[in-house]
Amino acid sequence: TEMAKAGINKKILAQLGGEAHCFVGDESVAREALERGVTRSAVGMERAALLQKPCIFAIGNAPTALLSLLDLAEAGKVKPALVIGAPVGFVHVVESKERLIASGLPYIAARGRKGGSNVAAAIVNALLYGIRR
Fold first, then answer.
1. Strand order in the sheet with 56-59
2. Cα(133)–Cα(120) distance, rounded to whole angstroms?
3. Which of 56, 27, 55, 30 is nearest to 42 (CA)?
4. Is pTM, for the whole model, over 0.85?
5. What span, in angstroms and rounded, lies between the C-alpha atoms of 84 and 25?
6. DSSP state of 107
7. What are residue 57's phi and psi, to 5 degrees?
8. Angle between the 63-74 and 93-102 helix axes, to the nearest 10 degrees?
9. Does pLDDT of 132 surpass 90?
10. Sign (positive/negative) of CA torsion 92, 21, 126, 81?
11. Please, are residues 64 and 97 in contact by the beta-carbon 8 Å criterion?
12. What was the pLDDT predicted at 3?
């Protein structure tokens, strides 16, 4: 989400050659999601899957984003370098995290119903600080 992206230390990320992206807020994503009758998170994951570089997917809000990413990975449309699964809430939250754990993809997951954009950003930042050391 945009909130997770906002919490990531983009200065250190850039020093390490990385970039942060979030497509869920794009008008074209919202329009396509409405036309197809799917969530913006699902379409956002499809857009992210088109990036032609190794990607860490940090999901801290919508379990639908995590489920969409897992569907894309199972279909061979994306091969994440790492998935940070920290969606928060009640509907499909636990199921999405357990599916991530069982997926065989490299992951960090906040098990249970807790998580959030701040948790996803904190995990990314911890990785960045560890790499920078």
1. 56-59, 82-85, 107-109
2. 20
3. 30
4. yes
5. 20
6. E
7. -100, 115
8. 30
9. no
10. positive
11. no
12. 86
